[in-house]
Amino acid sequence: MNPFLLVIILGIVEGMTEFVPVSSTGHMILVERFINSPLVSKTFMENFLVIIQFGAILSVVAYFWNDLTPFVKTKEEFKEKLSLWTKIIVGVLPAGVIGLLADDYISEFFMDNTTIVASMLILYGIIFILVERKNLMGGIGSIKEMSYKLAFTIGFFQCLAMIPGTSRSGATIVGALLLGVSRSVAAEYSFFLAIPTMAGATLLKLVKNGLNFTPLEWQLLAVGSVVSFVVAYVVIKWFMGYIKKKTFMAFGVYRIILGILVLLLMK
């Protein structure tokens, strides 16, 4: 397959799955495994699957710019922005520390293991269904109401997504729901945590690789990132409307079906 067509497909998959609880990395690993290109090395693809998330990060910043912007006019607005960003930083600390320590181990033992991806898709699909059946009515209706301790605790749930197939947004949302956060706020906070988490993961890959990409690989990274930005922006807009009316039950069912299909295709 033409490498540009491959990265466009992967960019679409990244944009469609990064911010909904279905595991973007898991989907991209599966797509890359079944639709491969001999013109792209395995090492580059491992880096690509992480670095392409940069486009999706920018879509979050663009969509929530009014909430995230540091440019304010009053002291009250400054305090609100400072509180929000402090909670984002506190929430990302667990993933930052554990991710830095475990990055090489994760890349070696998990990134190319389709069985693990399929198993995590199924496991967290079941967890989503069980959590939604509890019909949790979170009392925390805004990030402003969240304590720093709660933000830090939710951050530990995000660490579960280091295993491909789990879903960073899925793990974070489930954790927040169990801790009493409303569905829409859980999703929004998950998006905000994605900014430093994914930016850090991208930077780590770039530093470890030493920016040692060929001109073709830089072009592939650029195309994939642009595609993921556009698609992710559209998906975020849709998803924020979806969760105000419906539960995550459908995502749980989807994960289970996809995981089973992957296991069957492996035979």
Textual characterization of the structure:
It is a single chain. The protein is an all-alpha fold and 267 residues long. The protein contains twelve helices and no strands. The protein has helices at 3-17, 24-34, 42-51, 53-63, 65-68, 75-109, 114-133, 148-158, 168-178, 183-209, 215-242, 249-266. Helix 1 (3-17) packs antiparallel against helix 2, helix 2 (24-34) packs antiparallel against helix 7 and helix 7 (114-133) runs parallel beside helix 9 (168-178). The longest helix has 35 residues, at 75-109. The protein is globular and about 55 Å long. The chain starts with a helix and ends with a helix. The mean pLDDT is 85.
Q: What is the fold's blueprint, element by element?
A:
Blueprint: H1 3-17, H2 24-34, H3 42-51, H4 53-63, H5 65-68, H6 75-109, H7 114-133, H8 148-158, H9 168-178, H10 183-209, H11 215-242, H12 249-266
Helix pairs in contact: 1-2, 1-11, 2-7, 4-10, 4-11, 6-8, 6-10, 7-9, 7-12, 8-9, 9-10
| Coarse morphology | globular
**Beta strand %:** under 5%
Oligomer: single chain
Structural class: mainly alpha
Helix content: over 70%
Task: Provide mean pLDDT, rounded.
Answer: 85
Termini gap = 24 Å
Q: What about the largest sheet?
A: none
* Number of helical segments with 4 or more residues: 12
Indicate the radius of gyration in whole angstroms: 18 Å
Helix-strand topology string: HHHHHHHHHHHH
Parts with pLDDT < 50 across at least 5 consecutive residues = none
How many DSSP E strands? 0
